[in-house]
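Support request, please re-run this one:
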Amino acid sequence: MSYRVFTRTWWTENPDWPNGLEPCPGRRHYHPHRFITEQAAREYCGDWNATHEAGRLSRKCEFEEV
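Re-run finished. Output below.
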């Protein structure tokens, strides 16, 4: 078992929605890193999110088990 990390946005522009944003999980953009433990993947995502601005569409780093 291993974990891979990716980034994606959580909103899309839509002027018909409040604040012009509609919930819409975006396409996953995978990082080249793989981790053996969930804790290592969690720490990587936490570090990435702490050093990258999420922006209006809320781009975040996440992980999944593979």
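Strands lie at 3-8, 11-13, 21-23, 29-35, 60-65. The longest strand covers residues 29-35.
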